[in-house]
Design goal:
alpha+beta; Nuclear Transport Factor 2, Chain: A; SHC Adaptor Protein; 2 domains; 3 helices; 25% helix; globular
Length: 164
Amino acid sequence: MSSKTVRRMVGVLVGVSMIGCTSHSKEQNLPPDQVPQAVMDSLRNKFPDLAVKKASTERENGQDIVEVAFSARGGSYEAESTPQGKLIAIDRMVEVRDLPGAVTNAIHEKYPDAKITSAEEVTKNDAVAYHEVNITSGSQRLELQVDPAGKIINEEKKSAEDKD
C-alpha cells in the first residue's frame, strides 16, 4: 500500500471518529461542590431538601448537559439540566409495584415472560413524559420507554455490560 493511500485511510478514520464525537461526548465526573449555581438553584427550587450524591457533565447533540444524582423527599432522583439551570428531565426511581397498570400491562402484552428489573418515572416540563423500564425477557435485556397511556415509545437492547 502506498503512503498516500495510508494517509487517506487515516484521514477517513479520523474524520469518522470526529463525527461520532460531535453528537455525544464522554461523561466526565463533576465534584458536587462544582455543580453550576444556576443548576443547584433550579433543583433546590423543586427539592429544598436535596442532597447531591454525584454529578457529571457531557455534551449531547452539541449541547452541554449537567447530570446530577441526588436524594430528596425520601427518594432517589437524577436530573439533566443545561449549565444555565434549565431543567431538561428529572428521573425518579420507582418501585416496580408502583408502576401504572397501563405501563405494566403494555410490557407484559408485548413480552409475556418479562421480568421488570428497575423503573424510573421521567418528568419533562413538570409532567410525566414516560417510564423508563428495564426488563429481561428470555435471554434479552431491554430498556423500554412507555408513556403513561401504556404505549411503548422506544426499545433498546442492552448488553450484559450495561447497567440498569
